[in-house]
Design goal:
384 residues; alpha/beta; Gyrase A, domain 2; Rossmann fold; Isoleucyl-tRNA Synthetase, Domain 1; 3 domains; 4-stranded antiparallel sheet; 13 helices; 10 strands; EC 6.1.1.19; Arg-tRNA-synth_N
Length: 384
């Protein structure tokens, strides 16, 4: 069951409770399904009970108690628990990642784009797509951030127009940073005046200090863009050669290395004669044929991060914050690097269904990393 399917399942539970006379509320159009918070339980969590409590005239915990039996009996749900003031935490059991992985592999790097229905309060819907005009001062960080914000908004079904202050960008900003050389100069009147809901937004992150401009350009496109995008817009970018160092302390290296490793295990698996197939990743057999669960903690770490990717893209677009995506990719990469050693058979071990499922999970993680890096305008190398 994917997050989208689970969101629909929660809505059906609310609808049944209303039809049975247990709740007197208007059934919402959508439900937010997210990764459980710190100390949370299960694969996903929803705050629907808190959302409905006031209109229902009940406490959030009472609403959660009414919804619980409708959720617990749903297909694909293996357990439901109420936590905190009324959060519903949901476990999907051993098949939690199967549909999710299949969906990611089907969508590839476009997983999380709005041509698929996505989940979350921040997710724009194609039916409410609008035109947004972004404007940036003639400053390299502003132009790079505007470029990525535009990509994020387009991924969420928003039509974008970009303008910048009079005068083209410096040639080095174009060749090294990849900013738009044809950014339209600011006009005295808004574009497309016939569009009533046109928004004009100025993208103005903390600029690169003048002494750092030359060192920034020596980093090259990938490291320079990461240096500008990884910090929040209100933080000063750190322009140092550390962004070029290929070691674990460098988050950009970890993200790109994790992607390259997902490609490498795919090549190695092909050499061993097996391919990816979404399924139960947890179980394997030892030499005596006994089933052992060897990867449950690893899967528990990475699956919610992959499931949360559409919501992260939506939030990054809504809040004009590429740093949210950059930090998410670091978390996905770290979880991927922990998973990868368990993907291939060891020694004389024969490839099993679990190995094919783990390979599918690794390839899904690679698709998320590649898609996220592409939105940031950063290369995802297959060999590193």
């Amino acid at each position: 069951m994917t997050p989208v399917e689970l969101s629909r399942t929660v809505l059906r539970a609310v609808r049944r409770a209303v039809e049975d006379g247990e709740l007197s509320v208007v059934v919402p159009e959508k439900v937010s399904v997210t990764v459980p918070g710190v100390g949370g339980w299960g694969d996903y969590a929803t705050n629907i009970a808190l959302q409905l409590a006031r209109p229902a005239g009940e406490t959030p915990r009472r609403v959660a108690e009414l919804l619980l039996p409708h959720l617990a009996g749903a297909h694909g749900v293996s357990g439901v628990e109420i936590t905190g003031p009324g959060f519903l935490n949901i476990s999907l059991g051993s098949t939690a990642s199967t549909s999710l992985v299949a969906e990611i592999l089907r969508r590839g790097p476009r997983y999380g784009f709005v041509d698929d229905l996505t989940v979350g309060d921040d997710t724009p819907n194609a039916s409410t797509a609008r035109l947004v005009r972004l404007h940036a001062p003639r400053e390299p960080r502003a132009l790079v951030v505007m470029d990525v914000v535009a990509r994020l908004l387009r991924s969420q079904g928003v039509d974008i127009r970009t303008t910048c202050e009079t005068g083209p960008p410096e040639p080095a900003w174009v060749t090294v940073l990849g900013v738009d050389p044809y950014c339209a100069p600011q006009e005295p009147t808004p574009l497309d005046l016939e569009v009533e809901d046109l928004e004009v937004e100025v993208v103005r992150p903390v600029p690169v200090p003048a002494p750092d401009l030359a060192p920034l350009l020596t980093l090259g496109r990938d490291a320079a863009r990461w240096a500008l995008l990884h910090p929040a817009a209100h933080d000063r970018p750190r322009v140092t050669a550390d962004h070029l160092v290929q070691r674990e302390a460098n988050p950009l290296f970890r993200v790109r290395y994790a992607y390259a490793r997902t490609r490498a295990v795919g090549r190695n698996a092909a050499d061993l004669g097996f391919t990816a197939e979404p399924g139960d990743v947890r179980d394997t057999q030892d030499a005596q044929g006994d089933v052992q669960e060897v990867t449950t903690p690893l899967v528990r770490e990475i699956t919610p991060l992959l499931a949360d990717h559409p919501r992260v893209l939506a939030r990054a677009a809504t809040h004009r914050a590429p740093d949210l995506l950059a930090r998410h990719l670091v978390a996905v990469a770290d979880a991927t690097l922990v998973l990868l050693p368990a993907v291939l058979p060891l020694g004389d071990e024969k490839p099993l269904a679990a190995h094919r499922a783990r390979l599918a999970l690794a390839e899904a993680a690679g698709a998320v990393l590649a898609g996220g890096l592409s939105l940031l305008g950063i290369d995802a190398p297959e060999h590193l």
